[in-house]
Amino acid sequence: MPLRLDRSATGFEADFAAFLATKREVSEDVDTVVRDIIARVREEGDAALIDYTRRFDRLDLSKTGIAVSEAEVDAAMAEVDADTLAALRFAHERITAHHARQMPQDDRYVDPVGVELGSRWTAVEAVGLYVPGGTASYPSSVLMNAVPARVAGVERIVMTVPSPDGQLNPLVLAAARLAGVSEIYRVGGAQAVAALAYGTETIAPVAKIVGPGNAYVAAAKRRVFGTVGIDMIAGPSEVLVIADGNNDPSWLAADLLAQAEHDAAAQSILITDDAGLADAVEAEVERQLARLPRGEMAAASWRDFGAIIIVADLADAVPLANRIAAEHLELAMDDAENYVEKIRNAGAVFLGRHTPEVIGDYVGGSNHVLPTARSARFSSGLSVLDFVKRTSLLKLGPEQLRLLAPAAIALARAENLDGHAASVAIRLNPES
Amino acid sequence: MPLRLDRSATGFEADFAAFLATKREVSEDVDTVVRDIIARVREEGDAALIDYTRRFDRLDLSKTGIAVSEAEVDAAMAEVDADTLAALRFAHERITAHHARQMPQDDRYVDPVGVELGSRWTAVEAVGLYVPGGTASYPSSVLMNAVPARVAGVERIVMTVPSPDGQLNPLVLAAARLAGVSEIYRVGGAQAVAALAYGTETIAPVAKIVGPGNAYVAAAKRRVFGTVGIDMIAGPSEVLVIADGNNDPSWLAADLLAQAEHDAAAQSILITDDAGLADAVEAEVERQLARLPRGEMAAASWRDFGAIIIVADLADAVPLANRIAAEHLELAMDDAENYVEKIRNAGAVFLGRHTPEVIGDYVGGSNHVLPTARSARFSSGLSVLDFVKRTSLLKLGPEQLRLLAPAAIALARAENLDGHAASVAIRLNPES
Predict the structure, then answer these.
(1) What is the set of domains in chain A, with CATH numbers?
(2) For this structure, is A98 an active site residue?
């Protein structure tokens, strides 16, 4: 049974605060292992990759090669059935079109006193894309990570993906081909992250690493951060559905379960002003769970982390939603358009009854890499901005320098940085 | 003596690679101490702040209060001399004008098939600004951190600053007042970071923490990351000057020393195609060092981390500069405008002989919080973007859902996420 809260009940605030504070992640202590793996890859390069892959993936890279060949990708493309490939292409086109709108504009201008200022955006030169192996090896995630990099103008997009027992998901290779991934290596885990950050004989280093992974991958990304950039460390996925009474309970139940089936630590929350609807949704969840292939996983998530919150009025849900700051927020109501204006913290909002969150996972066009665990309060989903960086430009002539110098010198002296003051003053009085 | 490299010498590549790999930071192992401090602040709140401040800052907060009062800030404003206050105001205006151009635009549109998509930017609700005490307590840094937050629309800007023996820098308080800081607390160190992240009776928690600090502050920021957002952990500052032969060596020497005086771990690098100029600059550095109040610091930095690289042609400096990816890059040459087009990795570029980097520290208008330690390869200086976050919006009607559904269902099934497929399918066939 999921948690059930009533906003009008005594003690709601304490219960809600405790709910918000619930940790959904088991933090495995893998840091020592990861430190050693990184050190060995830095020292031994390819040889370390070969050894770890033999041990962890039961695969001899000295026979297969570390790189996945173009011919292998060709074969994967041929192997994928036509409908799925068409769906991947459709998703790729929609994601590309949306992300093309995100490219930031350079800004170069002269201010009223003649100082030239500017902000210039350039692409990160090389990006590593980590793709998990096994059941979490999602072609949609390859598109969601590679497309913004490609749109940004990243020249080298380097994918690493473990191939346990030599198996690679042909759909993942197909997605990589569509998205313009430039190199693919069959390595995974902390060793792949180390190779991307520091390079080996075969893998040239990158400047930034993105993509999801298990506890070892996350720990490795944290460790190499600084040497390279990393994306956010994603936590378990979550959805918040805010629904009025005028909904088909089976639709809402399906949406809650789509989230819950990801992971036993995923979270599905329903807020409604209709207690009757809440009951109906709960019954529907049980009914649909029975026929869901990943029902056991979904049931655990719903039981341990699911929640239903009853409010007297949907307006009361706004502050709760802003505190939850959900990764995914569905507004299953008539006037979603006005309601969303009041929502401040959410990774992505799905407006109206005909926009299930799953559309955003695949073909909506927006990115499905979104801030989890309340981090939508301070961060954004993956976008083109994650693959570009800004350089400030400043240009003064002698006249502008004379104009700005007194204030710069005054502040430098106030901060006891006389060398700073001197570097300005010396240009005013070159003979000094 | 600084390192001296000649690009045409045998072994240059190995020497340059070793130079790039030089670590300039001593990583103090403070993590255990910091963990305990954070745990105690979470548990005991204000009482822990009072105890730590008594111990570390020799100040009794139970007498002074944790908050700095408006009257204290008024008094500080009155205490600052008129010229310095005018300089602060001048800087504040220029920084505000530049950052106002950085506010990203919302984007809402309907695509060719009628799907509504959008990117909506909202300000982070509350931001913590850490300001160091003692000699590193810079009013200019208060402006550089607070102004972009203010421009972004952050409602609560909460400043913490330690006051060793009860001393607060009046200029720091004045800068806070000018920049619109909403609350100021006289606490520092890991305990201040913990209070900002988790809150105490007096200090309400924030969603993001920015600002420089010592090893304890940096370790605390790393630890609370996830609960709140943080900015980059800044390393020692650095400047790269690329100069043709037609420069006054005393100007270049002054610029190199302005950087070197920051910190013994700061770094100043000169690349030139004129070995004679290099010699003259080196002699000038020695001459100016003698009269610099922070000469000992600057001398240590120049001796341990300074470098002069001779190239046959300034074009040869481009790939070196892009690998160095300096925080600050000065182009002391005639045609800086064309040269900068080839520069890809740099935090900020200062064009021409009349744009010393120090102008950017104070009054240029651009931000002086910039990526250090080669991180300009993958990250940007502080900007308004660091204080806003983007929410994706997606809205389909029944017709759009029918159009996108087949591809979404195909991909969901290909990923073995039948619950995902069901959440789309159930809307096509409600009676199922």
Answers:
(1) 3-21+235-364 (3.40.50.1980), 31-106+122-230 (3.40.50.1980), 396-428 (1.20.5.1300)
(2) no
Amino acid at B367: N
- Which residue does chain B place closest to A21, by CA atoms? B227
Per-residue tokens: B397:
């009607």
**A88, A258, A410 member nearest B420 (Cβ):** A258
Q: Tell me how far CA of residue B271 lies from CA of B181, B236, B250, B267, B372, in angstroms.
A: 41, 20, 15, 13, 18
Q: Is B67 exposed, middle or buried (0-12, 13-18, 19+ CB in 10 A)?
A: middle
What is the complex's ipTM, to 2 decimals?
A: 0.96
- Within 13 Å, how many C-alpha atoms sit on residue B53's CB side? 31
Sheet holding B156-160, edge to edge: B183-185, B156-160, B126-130, B208-210, B229-230
- What are the tens digits of pLDDT across the range A107-128? 999 999 999 999 999 999 999 9
Q: Which residue has the tokens 């590309």?
A: A96
Whole-angstrom Cα distance, residue B414 to residue A241?
A: 26
Region of residue A71 (phi > 0: left; psi between -120 and 50: alpha; otherwise: beta)? alpha
CB atoms within 10 A of CB A48: 21
Q: What is the enclosing helix (H) or strand (E) of B403?
A: helix B398-414
Q: How is residue A182 annotated by DSSP? A: -
Residue of A282, A284, A327, A330 with catalytic role: A327
Query: Residue B371: enclosing H or E segment and its boundaries?
Result: none
For A289-310, the pLDDT digits (tens) are 999 999 999 999 999 999 999 9
